[in-house]
Amino acid sequence: MAKTRTVTNFVGKNSLFDAGGAFAISFYRPNTNPYSGAASNAVTVDGIPVESGSSLNIKQNVGDFDHSQYDIVFPPGGAGDNILYVIRIMEQ
In the beta sheet, which residues pair with residue 16? Predict the structure, then answer.
């Protein structure tokens, strides 16, 4: 069994995010910004909407690594804050 580590990144603008060889990756959109209390704006990952307070989870088969680039888009016009956390399980 491989040793793993968890890597968490914050994304607050439109970008391509490289999975970097992760075993699993999750995109979490909180309900509100924990610092300002503002609501989180709508966001999509490769065109899939991530609902407020929810996450999109992608895992690989045993022994496979994710080398995808995910297109993160915050549509214009949101009144809250652009907030998305990306959590990856990586080989140590």
Answer: 71
Q: Which domains does the chain have, with CATH numbers?
A: 4-91 (2.60.120)
Partners of 41 in the β-ladder: none
What's the pLDDT tens digit per position in 41-79? 999 999 999 999 999 999 988 888 999 999 999 999 999
Name 78's Cβ contacts closer than 8 Å, sequence gap at least 6.
41, 42
CB 15 within 8 A of CB 84: no
Q: How confident is the model at residue 1 (pLDDT cuts 50, 70, 90)?
A: low
Burial (CB < 10 A; 0-12, 13-18, 19+), residue 47, is exposed
Instruction: Provide the whole-model pTM.
Output: 0.93
